[in-house]
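Annotated sample (chain length 348).
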Amino acid sequence: MASRRRLNFDSYTIEIPQHNLGIGMVDFSAEFAMTGVYELWEKTLSATYPITKERLTDLLTRDHGRHFAALLVTDPSDWREWPIIGFIATYMYGGGGDDGETRNGYISVIMVDPVHQRKGLGSAMVEWAQHMLYKKYGIEKLPVGSVFPRFWPGVPKDLSKNALEFFENEGTMEPENDCIDLYQDITNYKAPVELVARAEKEGYTFHPLHPSQFSECLVGQRKNFSSYTGWVSKYEDLHHMHRDFEIMTCFTPTGQQVGWTLMTSCDSPILQDFAFTPVVGPKTGVVACVGVDEGYRNKGIGLAMLVRTLEDMKRRGVEMVFVDWVTMRGYYEKVGFETWRGYLGCGF
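Output written by the structure step:
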């Protein structure tokens, strides 16, 4: 493929001679490109993943994003009049400074106008992004997915046949990273008491976090889950937003915190980080970052905490509950969750 296209990073151009395509590559800016990018989304993804222009704009204008638009070179001399026929969104996470923390990147969105698909433009945009992110940030590998903001945790299995073939042919498939999103309608939810009996018999209790308890909560997140990108920061975000009540917590008989999960209300600001919760349903909340302290696992705490979480969310008016990026099969299903969408692990 590489021999059939020419990328000139100095002039910001791509040539694909066999299809007579001349492409101008530009760094994304919402002021210039947002209308064209949204029109491209409408052509390629909106049938399965509808999103408002306002929501997409918010997700693409986060500080840690680095995106590129592919413009078709046409007659007008002003490049700003060239139509956008391709787009690739990437996000960076982690360090990259003097702290020694590794900076990671993700390819989160790839779109090519249907008229220009299967011409090598998608591959050229990936190569372009790889070069730019390596040059500036030293990032060598780009998995497909996103952390926060969250589009998809991998390649959606319900993409078009052409799109799936692109990832299979151009990327490296990583079946060990396949995952699913889950959902559950809790409008008529009734707690399965057998799932909480073991933990509560041993004296464990479950309550939303009080702000005064956050310091201990944060210690628990850093101790157990700091290796998960974005995990600790989401707990910090809720605390700073004065929404500690959206953290369900498990306490030992002596009052020590040993389990936690985020459990958002329908109006939680955290939902702005999830692209497609409105597709799940109008009164959707999210369960995320579910974890039990390493020394207290395999005691039934996790499932019991999920049961009490769903009860609390129902009390707050949530009707649909969304859980994303699940790799542990059969666990959440025990409390009633079903598969919403599936994803393939892939990287470039």
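Annotation: The first strand starts at residue 6 and ends at 8.
Annotation: The two ends are 14 Å apart (CA to CA).
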